[in-house]
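re the bet — no i am not wrong, look at it urself. input seq straight from the record:
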Amino acid sequence: MCDTAKRFYMEQFAEHDNNQSDIEVEANVVDHELVTELLNAKLVSFHIKFLDLKKSISSLKNKNSTGLDGVSNKIIKLLPPSHLTFITSSFNYMAQHVCFPQHWLTAKIILLSKTKSSIVDINDTRPISLLPCFSKLYE
């Protein structure tokens, strides 16, 4: 099923011919200008406070679903304050150095059936992607 799903979605999201409409060309120009402006802009430093992180963690939904790292919101909510101090320091380091762990961008894909049939056709599924909980917390 995994290979079938992989082929199916690779086909669905394959690059298409570059026949862009005028509005798409204009949107790409504006997008490029914005990216250039952002890259040349002075970085604004911000500091994540321990209590803000604690508040964000307490507002997480009590879900057991995990990304590829195997860490759920429920597990994060059970962490002791000493761990939260380390996480706060790590988040501040990443913010200060404008870095983000690449593996936080890798999602676990799960196919949900649209039907109640025991034999599921790939066309009767919808994918959901599960990112690591720490990446969502950091964002």
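see?? The chain is about 45% helix and 10% strand. told u. also The beta strands are 108-113, 125-130. so pay up
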